[in-house]
Amino acid sequence: MDNRPESKPESAQLHLVLISLHGLIRDQNLELGRDADTGGQILYVVELLRALAAHPRVGRVDLLTRRIQDTHVADDYARQDESLPDLPKAHIIRFPAGPDEYLPKEALWPYLDGFSDHAMEYLRQQQSPSLIHSHYADAGYVGMRLALQLGVPLVHTGHSLGRSKRQSLLASGESERTLEKKYRLSQRIRTEEEILATASLIITSTQDEILRQYGMYNWANAERMRVIPPGVNLSRFEPGPQPPPPISTELQRFLREPQKPPVLALSRPDERKNIAGLIHAYGQNPGLQARANLVIVAGTREDIRDMAAGPRQVLTEILLLIDCYDLYGRVAYPRYHRPDDVPDLYRWAAGLGGVFINPALTEPFGLTLIEAAACGLPILATEDGGPKDIIANCQNGVLIDPLNAEEIGEKLLSMLSDKATWKSYAKNGIAGVRRYYSWQTHVDQYLTALDELPLTVPQRQDIIPTGERITADRLLFLGARLLDPAPIPEQQAELVALLHRHRRKMAFGLVSFRPLHELLALLKQRRMNVPDILITRGGTQIHYGASLSRDQGWSRHIGVDWQGDRVYDLLAETPGVQVVGRSGQGFYAVHGFIRDRAEFEGLVALNDQLHNCDIPGRLITLNPQEFLVVPQRASLGFAIRYVADRHDIALDHVLVVGSARADLDLLGGNILAAQVGGEKDLQQHEAIYQSQASGLPGAMEAITHYDFLSNNALI
User: Fold this and answer.
1) What string of H, E and C letters represents the secondary structure of 18-67?
2) What secondary structure letter does DSSP report for 114?
3) Which of 101, 153, 266, 456 is most buried as measured by Cβ atoms within 10 A of its Cβ?
4) Would you call 253 exposed, middle or buried from its count of C-beta atoms within 10 A (0-12, 13-18, 19+)?
């Protein structure tokens, strides 16, 4: 049976999978501004979900996010499947990732493999998705794993990027060590590079994002990027007269002259939003104070003292600056606002002849700018980032230097004082948003970009011959390194006896970076029978039983777009590298040796070369002198998950015991895992059992720890 993917018929409806992991995501009453993780990205993905589900070309769209069971947040976030009542094709699906409680995004990294495994199990039960679309680096990591295992394209939207964040925070005085501890930026940046190498399409909001932010990355390819600005919900954000909104009563508590035009700022209490710079601009300009009030809506709060350090510092500085400039009666800073208050605030400010300002130090896009513009409110915005595109398209405001308080004050006063210009900006903004920034426009451009991708429907896998079908209900995999050096005969006999005794319940496999013939020679030397499964050459080959039948479906899956000859030629031409003859290489692996370190530029440079040549490969370091290059879809961990899925064995019925740093790909996620020998590489992964014993005794210890052979195994 031919297992190659078939092209998707034009009439077939798309099944789209969106992933956004952090923050608080639900269909209604989004808690925007609650913290740094519940901001514009949350609104973006929920609105995108709704807009895609309303399109006739889309048959189903799932938004995958993290399940949270925490008394400090609503019960909504614990529901596994949230169907949207007005859009039956849209679903929000939640999976566990680490502890039940709400966690900041920086704390999620150790739990992403587990989330990925839950998501894969769900998607295997659905009609195969047309593509995976990840949002932000954490979801991008999960998206890569899912796309490579399913054999579908990856689309990615970064929202913000680690290199840009590190640059701006270092400039503000933060130390490299503090940034690494707080934000895990090196891990994030490394993941972002891998996403850029894997994704078929990167969606950005502005051209500036491509040039200045992605331009900082080694593996960025502008040819795979498309500028598709986010949309705005025009049914919520529209102009028009209205009675004073409920929140205006709250604002009047602060203001002596509430009928003055307001300068409105709305953002999270984040240092990068530069609210302090805005207060300096207002406080240093008496003419502006006489002309307008200042209204700062900076999230919601109960007690500033109970907030996290970053928001607490920003809000404390706001209060101190208001006191310093004696702005009481002229500045409003409400403690609460609801999502429904936001469009009311824009219309209220427009009705009084006010303006909206985004003074952020840098702004990747500026969703609040198009919301305000849609309601007829002229804008002033930072010149650093996406607002340049918005103002160029809509002709509805002016750019400001966020570090020049005097200029900000002068431009605010000028716009508020010139009624003709104000009216022109208000009119242009309403028309421009409807032309460039509606969700209908976004989805049309999105689907046009998808038409350029090779969307496929993977065929069902070949039927497994009866002799190769694993009938056991659990799998034990050992890293072949556990057989080096030669085990003590009594220890080896104990393992062999255990495998024989439980052969109906448990299948046994070995995984290795070695080629098949070397592993077979090792087994012969150790006088061990060929196990049920052999995964060799870094996950590029799977063989079953004594007959050594090769899994053809796996070979076809990883072989898509593999360019082995180009890899071989590249390595052969690389100074300081030696490769054996082509006859000694595997079908889907190229084995290289570092011959001369003085000539060799290093593995990082070699990895860059692979991606610069647009070769979809994965570089695996075997030891200081050897490495493999394998297809992007191949890895030991992916191969194990493939075998488990093919033979209908749940991942929590799979135990993998590894021994060394090169085995890290095996361990983690929802597979039961152990590392033997007291290595410390995996201490950050609490779910991985650390055995102090080495070799086979360590493996036996892990089997006992997990009670793996009991009918009540730890699963």
Assistant:
1) EECCCCCCCCCCCCCCCCCCCCHHHHHHHHHHHHHHCCCCEEEEEEEEEC
2) H
3) 266
4) exposed
Cβ count near 74 (within 10 Å): 12
Residue with token string 């993780």: 37
Q: Is the pLDDT of residue 714 over 80?
A: no
DSSP 438: B
Write phi, then psi, for 621 (nearest 5 degrees): -85, 125
pLDDT per residue over 536-576, tens digit each? Answer: 999 999 999 999 999 999 999 999 999 999 999 999 999 99
Name the average pLDDT for the chain.
Answer: 91
pLDDT at 465: 65
Residue 336 φ then ψ, to 5°: -130, 150
Closest among 285, 233, 221 to 32, alpha carbons compared: 233
Rg (CA), the chain: 29
| Cβ neighbours, 10 Å, residue 696 | 22
**Measured distance CA(294)–CA(260) in Å, rounded:** 10
Q: Which two tokens stand for residue 184?
A: 């895990």
Distance CA 226, CA 201 (A): 7
704-707-711-714 Cα dihedral, nearest 10 degrees: -160
- Cβ contacts of 584 within 8 Å, gap of 6 or more: 591
Lowest mean pLDDT among 386-400, 451-465, 477-491: 451-465
**What is the rounded distance in angstroms from the CA atom of residue 513 to the CA atom of residue 518?**
10
pLDDT at 458: 55
Give the separation between CA 204 and CA 214, rounded to whole angstroms: 10
C-alpha span between 269 and 313 (Å, rounded): 9
Mean pLDDT for 70-90 is 96
CA–CA distance, 666 with 649 (Å, rounded to integer): 17
**Pairing of β 617-623 and β 541-544:** unpaired
Which of 298, 289, 366, 364 shows the shortest CA–CA distance to 328? 289
Contact between 625 and 593 (Cβ < 8 Å): yes
Cα separation, 553 vs 4, whole angstroms: 9
d(CA 634, CA 622): 15
- Is residue 663 within 8 A of residue 481, CB to CB? The reply is yes
- For residues 453 and 200, is the Cβ–Cβ distance under 8 A? yes
680: exposed, middle or buried (C-beta count within 10 Å: 0-12, 13-18, 19+)? exposed
Q: Tokens at residue 289, please?
A: 């104070």
